[in-house]
Amino acid sequence: MNKKKVTEQLGFWVLRLCVGITGLILLIILFDIVTKGIGKVSWRFLVESPRNGMTEGGIFPAIVGTFLVTMLTAVFAVPLGMGCAVYLNEYADDNVFTRIIRMSIRNLSGVPSIVYGLFGVVLFVQMMRIGTCVLAAGLTLGLMTLPWVITASEEALKNVPQSYRNGALALGATRWQAIRSNVLPYSISGMLTGTILGLARAAGETAPILFTGAAFFLPFLPKSPFEQFMALPYHLYIMVTQHHSLETARPIAYATALVLIALICSMNMFAVILRYKLRKQKKE
Amino acid sequence: MKIKENLIHGLFMFNALLVVLVLIGIFALLVNTSIPAFREIDIKEFLFKAAWNPTSYVKETYGIGSMLVSSVMVTAGALLFAVPIGIGTAAYLSDVASPGVREMVKPIIEILAGIPSVVIGFLGIVFVGPIISRTFGLPNGLNAVNGSILLGVMALPTIISLSEDALSSVSKTYSDASLALGASRWQTVIRVKLPAALSGVIAACMLGMGRVIGETMIVLMATGCAPAMPKNFLDSVRTMTSTIAIELGEVPYYTTHYYALFAVGLVLFIITFCINMASDMVLHKYQGKRG
Questions:
Q1: Which homologous superfamily does the CATH classification assign to the domain defined by B45-290?
Q2: CB A146 to CB B19 under 8 A?
Q3: Which helix (H) or strand (E) holds A56?
Q4: pLDDT value at position B247?
Q5: Facing residue for A104 by CB, picked from B1, B20, B87
Q6: Would you say residue B181 has pLDDT above 70?
Q7: Is 70 exceeded by the pLDDT of residue A211?
Q8: B108: which chain A residues are within 8 Å (Cβ-Cβ)?
């Protein structure tokens, strides 16, 4: 009996150690970047362009570029993703056709991001002759984000009770009217939560934009979707590996990493708060 | 009204069909862009030869052998520590932790999942690299060990959250029965719940593996990327993903080298596709048994 208790405690401590290691990893990542990056982050760092061969100045164009390309990603991925989720959850029966669609979604979310980059180069940059620009990068990231948006949206749609639909249908509403009035209003915040999480991931991606539009350095902001852009993750990559003077660039790299993490964390926080509010609403 | 209704239905259906088209499109474009490469490269040589030297003045060689070995090496290294820690954390969250602790640990995993890979790669250069070079007395710490550690960190959240889902979805009657028979909670976790959720946990690890093999920025930044056959874990490695990332930016369009890079992408796509399908099959087997 006693031996059993000891083994149990020992086992639980091994599991606690696993959790501790996971927590420690996050702590190390955040601590290293925050302590070494915070000194360089200032208002001017956020609103100035890089100067002197990117050894001084700020990261304003990279912030704007990431913002623009993420907006474009949302424009492509959100309507398509939500539409696909509505079809799967509201219209489709369980048959071979829907099973193939679901299989495709699962596989798309497993396709490596660099392969999306290759796809973007051939389809958008060359075949459609868009060239390397914000639009091509946004389309590429949009395709990559699509499966995440679909999965999250479907989850939200599943949470709407069946009785809501039946109520509307019983009153003589058509399928679409029932969806519009009784399903979408109750699932939209859940869909948005998942979508924002997906967009946050897209904002931090580097591999798909390497060859579809991200630029090393640009003195001006992109004026149209057909121009190249600077992006935070790509800027960080360059500052760390491609810069002519790596040591002088290091503080800027740390600060860029901090801004990138802060941006993504605040997007995630926003989504989590949205989800929390939603849960509270439901309980009431 | 009926027409409008059907139109909307059709629109949504077309929308869903688009997803299938994207997947087929990716595959078709990769195949289509790879084929010209094999006009000049022998396919057997491409798959099995170790040397990748597309810019040689004497004779260009296109063999992905060393890249395959490199990719497998860092993936194995990453899973070696991400799988036990991931499953351990998942088991703790689903069976040991109080609800309060769980609410505290879950955001940690979510934040970890949200850290961009380029940031993890950056830490590989400035944080993990120096530690490795000091420990092993190497001139620099950019090698397979470094890449493995970072990739493991990246795979952790995937493995944890999916394994936890699998463990939590084991019917409560299983653990109740085990506890009623006098087993301790530890015995219940190890002997009853883990075996019952095994296929879900395996599927989680496989999905983590798929993400690791396809990861680009981390290996590009932290493994040194020397294009040679690695001899051990302290050697610099160059995976398929980092080769594409390094060379596609410099290669002229429509050359054999360019097409060969797409062939590498195709191999990568096929590998991850197979891993995904296999994890799907494992998962379905498990659902079938219990449904």
A1: MetI-like (1.10.3720.10)
A2: yes
A3: strand A56-57
A4: 93
A5: B20
A6: yes
A7: yes
A8: 22-23, 26
- Predicted TM-score of the model (pTM): 0.93
Say which of B1, B120, B244 has its CB closest to residue A174: B1
Q: Walk me through the domains of chain A, giving residue ranges and CATH numbers.
A: 58-283 (1.10.3720.10)
Alpha-carbon gap: A261 to the closest alpha carbon of chain B (Å): 7
Window 42-101 of B, Cβ < 8 Å to A: 84-89, 91-93, 96-97
Query: Which residue in A2, A30, A115, A176 has the most chain B C-beta atoms within 10 A of its own C-beta, making it the best mutation to test that interface?
Result: A115
Closest partner CB to B110 (pick from A28, A241, A268): A268
- Is B111 in contact with A19 (Cβ distance < 8 A)? no
Residue-wise pLDDT tens digits, A36-79: 999 888 898 998 888 877 778 889 999 999 999 999 999 999 99
HEC profile of chain B:
CHHHHHHHHHHHHHHHHHHHHHHHHHHHHHHHHHHHHHHCCCHHHHHHCCCEECCCCCCCEECCHHHHHHHHHHHHHHHHHHHHHHHHHHHHHHHHCCHHHHHHHHHHHHHHHHCCHHHHHHHHHHHHHHHHHHHHCCCCCCCHHHHHHHHHHHHHHHHHHHHHHHHHCCCHHHHHHHHHCCCCHHHHHHHHHHHHCHHHHHHHHHHHHHHHHHCCHHHHHHCECCCCCCCCCCCCECCHHHHHHHHCCCCCCCCHHHHHHHHHHHHHHHHHHHHHHHHHHHHHHHHHHHC
Q: What is the mean pLDDT of residues B9-28?
A: 93
Model confidence at B291, pLDDT cuts 50, 70, 90, reads very low
Choose among A146, A210, A264: nearest Cβ to B116.
Answer: A264
Q: Do the Cβ atoms of A118 and B245 come within 8 Å? A: no
**Do A114 and B265 make contact, defined as CB atoms within 8 angstroms?**
yes
B8: closest chain A residue by CA: A176
* Distance (Å) of CA B207 to CA B19, B29, B30: 20, 24, 22
Its ipTM equals 0.93
Nearest-CA distance from A138 to chain B in Å? 15
The overall average pLDDT reported for chain A is 91
Question: Domain coordinates of chain B in residue numbers?
Answer: 45-290
Q: Report the percent of chain A where pLDDT is more than 70.
A: 99
Looking at residue A4, its pLDDT comes to 83
CB contact under 8 A, B105 and A111: no
